[in-house]
Specification:
The chain has about 400 residues and is α/β, with parallel strands linked by helices. Helix content is about 45%, strand content about 10%. α3 crosses α11 and α5 runs parallel beside α11. It is globular and about 60 Å long. Bound molecules: pyridoxal-5'-phosphate. The site of pyridoxal-5'-phosphate has 13 residues, from α6.
Length: about 400
């Protein structure tokens, strides 16, 4: 017998992938330049040159057995130290290497963090709109994902709905700021309020509640946006980071878990991550890539194009009549669709205009569409008349 659970999952494909595959099919038919593909969050700028230079040097000079060898289960010690030092320097924290676990991107980090603080049947709360992969990350642990509906006026936290969902079974709250898909960054006020509620509920329920903070877009924040470092506001916090977007390294699968040293079981949780990796078969990311990111730990790719693209799209789309909360970061925006049925709207723009967007239903927020503008500014500008046509077609 094969596993029914995973066999069943194969019949429920991702809508994001479906639209992305349609875009690839159209590109093969009519040429890539004629398809306006806003579907996938794949960075569009190269890694910083210092990373490439570091890898070239290491390949020439370092011992290949070290460079391509197994790394320790928790990650290479010097790399964990570099991560801790960087976080302390930048955010005034007190991490040590013992609080850091190296992972395969944010995906690996979140999947480990959830397993550390939940047991099957426990509840994890997250906030719509959210990254759809949270469903398998949580489901795979046996915990249950509960969704707080979106506050579509600001995409900050809908606290009334959150309070209604809180109960003694909740062991963790999974947040993502800067947010995929809304592009919104949680304000200091939002984080303080969330922390205060959880402090109170921990006392009321008599157990810890963890914030698992998914932060792959931490470095992509636009001018004038308040961008608090979440773990500095709440002791029981686990930061899940990825270099996928900041350094444009999604294919290298590199990130980390940083457990707040003020959390009572911090060191144990990191050791537990090592044990969890034995169950999942997730082993440490490649030694060479760990060593490479440690060398450029405070650098990013040139991320400025994302803000440039956001400025153009936000200004032009709102002028056309699209309603949108202005993103404070990431490379996504999440306008309302001109008709309530986002699926129908996105299918129409794809089939009539080769303008490929993703319906908000995928992120548990119907009536919206996600634009991933990690693309060239030239493509963004050429797409503008199509957004205008789409608005007209929707009104016909
Ligand atoms: N969390 C969010 C919100 C994301 O958008 C992504 C990837 O797009 C991930 C986690 C997974 O990141 P990684 O590729 O580093 O595993």
């Amino acid at each position: 017998m094969i596993s029914e659970k995973y066999a069943d999952m194969t019949t429920k494909g991702s809508i994001i992938r479906e639209f992305a595959q349609y875009a690839s099919k159209r590109a093969a038919e009519i040429g890539k330049e004629n398809v306006y593909n806003f579907t996938i969050g794949n960075p569009s700028v190269p890694v910083c040159p210092e990373f490439t230079e570091t890898l070239e040097r290491m390949l020439k000079e370092e011992n290949p057995l070290t460079l391509h060898g197994y790394s320790p289960t928790l990650g290479i010690m010097s790399v964990r130290e570099a991560v801790a030092d960087s976080l302390n320097r930048r955010f005034g924290m007190e991490y040590t290497a013992d609080d850091i676990f190296m992972t395969s991107g944010a995906a690996g980090a979140i999947a480990h963090a959830i397993r550390c603080v939940t047991k099957p049947g426990d509840e994890v709360i997250t906030f719509a709109p959210y990254f759809p992969e949270y469903v398998p990350y949580v489901d795979g642990t046996g915990a249950v994902l509960k969704i707080v509906p979106a506050d579509i006026t600001s995409f900050q936290i809908n606290f009334d709905a959150f309070l209604e969902l809180l109960n003694p079974n909740v062991q963790a709250v999974l947040i993502n700021s800067p947010n995929n898909p809304s592009g919104i960054v949680y304000s200091t006020e939002t984080i303080k309020k969330l922390a205060a509620i959880l402090e109170e509920k921990q006392k009321e329920y008599g157990h810890d509640i963890y914030i698992i903070s998914d932060e792959p877009y931490r470095e992509i924040v636009f001018e004038g946006t308040d961008s608090p470092f979440i773990s500095s506001f709440y002791d029981n916090s686990i930061c899940c980071y990825s270099f996928s977007k900041s350094l444009s390294l999604p294919g290298e699968r590199i990130g980390y878990v940083a457990v707040n040293p003020k959390c009572k079981d911090a060191k144990l949780i990191v050791l537990m991550c090592g044990q969890i990796s034995r169950f999942t078969g997730h082993n440490c990311p490649p030694s060479m890539i760990q060593l490479g990111v440690a060398e450029v730990i405070d650098k990013t790719a040139d991320l400025s194009i994302y803000e440039k693209n956001k400025n153009i799209l936000y200004k032009e789309l709102t002028n056309m009549g699209y309603e949108c909360v202005e993103p404070g970061g990431t490379f996504y925006m999440f306008p309302k669709t001109p008709i309530a049925d986002a699926n129908a709207f996105c299918r129409m723009t794809a089939s009539k205009l080769d303008l490929i967007l993703v319906p908000g239903d995928s992120f548990m927020c119907p009536g919206h569409m996600r634009l991933a503008y990690c693309t060239t500014t030239e493509m963004v500008e050429r797409a503008l008349p199509l957004f205008e046509k789409a608005m007209k077609l929707a009104k016909e």
